[in-house]
Structure formats: structure tokens, C-alpha cells
């Protein structure tokens, strides 16, 4: 008599992670979701070591990411990426926490870029328009040094006329950057 293989054995049920319980339309969607998590691991590896340590990742994950950061091309690199992706998929709360921290970092970068664009516009406007723009600027920022800004504006205008490097424009930008906003 041939006995079925699983008779008499108790099979342990594996707990299925939340990301696998989601309703996916196809296997391709499942693979895309897994790849997105693996890509998140790669994104972590692109950060500096200091930034990685500031994220306060579990020691195992942090070591894995730092190892991935040091690796060169080859099959071991791919295995390490997959290992990090698997680690993140197994710990759903950690995955969500990392996504939130990365979103926060990205938001800070966007805010800083917007601030620098605003400063560049003010610098360009000050150089192009002179005293009228300086008057508008000082209404918004009365604590700025009028005399020093005027000097940089005049020097920057002369540098533009003589096709010299924009040393004064850079100095003006540094000063604007140093002001409290």
C-alpha cells in the first residue's frame, strides 16, 4: 500500500507578510512590488555612511547596506541586493519606517532647493535692477547690510560688463545664504 507523503505530518503554516497579502492583479505586479523594495535597498546604499547611520537601522540591515555600498560589480552584488530586499520585505513595520524617513529626507532636499532658487532669483534681480530691487529686498529683510550689498551689486555689474568671473555675485549669494530667513 502506497501512503501519501503528507499523511501523518503536521505542516507548519508560514505567516504571510502584509505586502504579499495585498490584492495583486498578476504575478508581474507581485514582482514589481518586490523589485520596488529591492530598489529601496539600493537607494539606501547610495546614501553616505553618515546618513545610513542616522537612519538608525537594525545592526544586521545596516551592516548589509554598508557591505553593499563597498561591493564592486559581480554576482555577489546582486545577491546582496536581493538579501536586503528580502530582509525589508520580512519586516513590514521597518520597511514603512524607512520609507517615511526617506520621504522626509527628500522633502528637506526639495525645501532646500526651493530656498536656493529663491536666493538665486534675488541675487539675479539685485544685480539686474540695482537700487530698486535692493529697496524691495530691504523691506522684506531690514536687518541686511545695505552698504555691503550695494558694493557687491556694483562690482558684479562691472564684472558682467567686463566679462570677468562672477566673484562678487558669488559673494552676494553667500551673504544672502547666511541671512536668517
Please, could you describe this protein's structure?
Its main location: cytoplasm. This is Dual-action ribosomal maturation protein DarP. Member of a network of 50S ribosomal subunit biogenesis factors which assembles along the 30S-50S interface, preventing incorrect 23S rRNA structures from forming. Promotes peptidyl transferase center (PTC) maturation. InterPro entries: DarP (IPR006839), DarP_sf (IPR023153). Keywords: Cytoplasm, Ribosome biogenesis, RNA-binding, rRNA-binding. It is a single chain. The longest helix has 38 residues. The chain folds into 2 domains: 73 residues, no CATH class; 71 residues, PSPTO4464-like domains (Diphtheria Toxin Repressor, domain 2, Orthogonal Bundle), CATH 1.10.60.30. Helix 4 runs antiparallel to helix 5 and helix 6 crosses helix 9. Helices cover 73% and strands 0% of the residues. With 181 residues, the protein is mostly helical. The chain starts with 17 loop residues before the first helix and ends with a helix.
Helix content: over 70%
List the quaternary state of the chains. Answer: single chain
Mean pLDDT: 82
Number of helices, counting only DSSP H or I runs of 4 residues or more: 9
SSE pattern, N- to C-terminal? HHHHHHHHH
Compute the gyration radius: what is it?
28 Å
Amino acid at each position: 500500500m502506497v501512503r501519501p507523503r503528507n499523511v501523518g505530518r503536521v505542516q507548519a503554516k508560514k505567516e504571510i507578510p502584509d505586502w504579499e497579502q495585498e490584492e495583486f492583479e498578476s504575478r508581474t505586479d507581485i514582482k514589481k512590488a518586490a523589485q520596488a523594495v529591492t530598489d529601496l535597498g539600493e537607494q539606501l546604499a547610495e546614501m553616505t555612511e553618515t546618513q545610513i547611520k542616522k537612519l538608525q537601522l537594525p545592526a544586521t540591515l545596516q551592516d548589509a547596506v554598508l557591505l553593499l555600498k563597498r561591493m564592486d560589480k559581480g554576482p555577489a552584488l546582486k545577491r546582496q541586493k536581493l538579501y536586503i530586499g528580502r530582509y525589508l520585505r520580512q519586516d513590514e513595520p521597518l520597511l514603512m519606517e524607512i520609507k517615511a524617513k526617506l520621504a522626509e529626507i527628500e522633502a528637506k532636499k526639495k525645501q532646500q532647493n526651493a530656498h536656493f532658487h529663491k536666493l538665486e532669483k534675488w541675487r539675479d534681480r539685485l544685480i539686474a535692477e540695482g537700487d530698486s530691487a535692493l529697496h524691495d529686498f530691504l523691506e522684506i529683510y531690514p536687518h541686511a547690510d545695505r552698504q555691503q550689498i550695494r558694493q557687491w551689486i556694483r562690482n558684479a555689474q562691472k564684472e558682467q560688463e567686463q566679462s570677468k568671473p562672477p566673484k562678487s555675485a558669488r559673494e552676494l549669494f553667500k551673504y544672502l545664504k547666511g541671512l536668517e530667513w
